[in-house]
Amino acid sequence: MSIGETLAEARRQSGLTIAQVGQRTRIRESIIRAIEQDDFSPCGGDFYARGHIRSIAGVVGTDPAPLIREYDNEHPPATMSAADVFEPTTPIKIKEPRRRFPIAALVIVVLLGVIGYGAYRLVDSRHPHSTATSTATVTPAVTATPKTASSPTAAPSPTATVPAQPQAVIVLTAAQNCWIGLTDSNGKKIFAGVIQAGHSKTFTEKHKVNLVIGNTPGVKVTVNGKKIKPNTPQVVTLSIDPSAKTPVAVTAPAGARLS
C-alpha cells in the first residue's frame, strides 16, 4: 500500500475520524485528507510533509519510519549546481554617488538673482506709488448646522443555544492481551482486533454501540471516566448509548455489575 493508504487504514483500525486526528496532531483536516490520497502538495515542502507523516502515524498507532523512507524514495531532494550556490538569489544594487551641484553654476544663479533684483528696484523707483485703497474685511457668517436626532440602536436579538450532542468516550487499557469487538446498533463492525498488553485504545462515539470484551479480567474499561467492572471471567457485551440516562448497560452473564 502507498503512504496515504497505510495511514488511512491505520486510522480506521484505530477507530478515529479525520477530525479527531486533526485535533490531536493540530494538522488541518484538508491536509490530512490530501495525505491519505498521497497528495503532499498542501504540506508546504518535504520537511513539513515528513513531520505530518510522523505525527499522523503516531496518533493512529503505526510505525512512521518505513513511511518516511518510502517518502524519501519517492521525493528525492533536488540537487543544486555550483553556479546556483555562488550566484546570489537577488541582484545586488550598487548605489551611485550623488552628483554635486557645480560651483560655477551656483555662482551664475546668484549673480542673475542680484541683477534681476537691482533692475526691479530701478524701474520701481521711476514710477509714483499708487495710493493704497482701504479694503473692507468681510467676515463670513457661520451658519449652525442643526444636529439630527440619532436613531435608537436596535438591541441584538438573543442567540439560540444549541445543546451539545452527548457522546461516550470509551477507553480500554489492557494489562493482558485482550480481543475486543465494537459494532454499531445495526451490527456494522467499527473495530475488531486484539489490544496488546500495556497498550490502550480510545473510541469516541455519539450513537449507540455494542462492545464485546473477550478477556474481562485482563482489561480496564472506562466510559466517560467511569470504570466498568464486570465480575465475570467470561465474554462480556456492553451496550453503550450516549443519549441514555444510564449510558452503559452490561448484557453479560449473571454477576456482572457497573461500579
Defining key terms:
259 residues, alpha+beta, 434 Repressor (Amino-terminal Domain), Immunoglobulin-like, five-stranded antiparallel beta sheet, 7 helices, 31% helix, 19% strand, elongated, disordered C terminus
Q: Can you tell me about this structure?
A:
- This protein has a 5-stranded antiparallel beta sheet with strand order 3-2-5-8-9, with no helix packed on it. Strands 4-1-6-7 form a 4-stranded antiparallel beta sheet, with no helix packed on it.
- It has helices spanning 3-13, 18-25, 29-36, 46-60, 64-74, 82-86, 103-125, and strands spanning 168-174, 178-184, 189-195, 200-205, 209-213, 219-223, 226-228, 236-240, 248-250.
- Strand 6 and strand 7 (226-228) form a beta hairpin.
- The protein contains 7 helices and 9 strands, in the order H-H-H-H-H-H-H-E-E-E-E-E-E-E-E-E.
- It is of the alpha+beta class.
- The two termini are 44 Å apart.
- Among the domains are: 3-74, 434 Repressor (Amino-terminal Domain) (Orthogonal Bundle); 168-250, Sandwich (Immunoglobulin-like).
- It is elongated, with a radius of gyration of 41 Å.
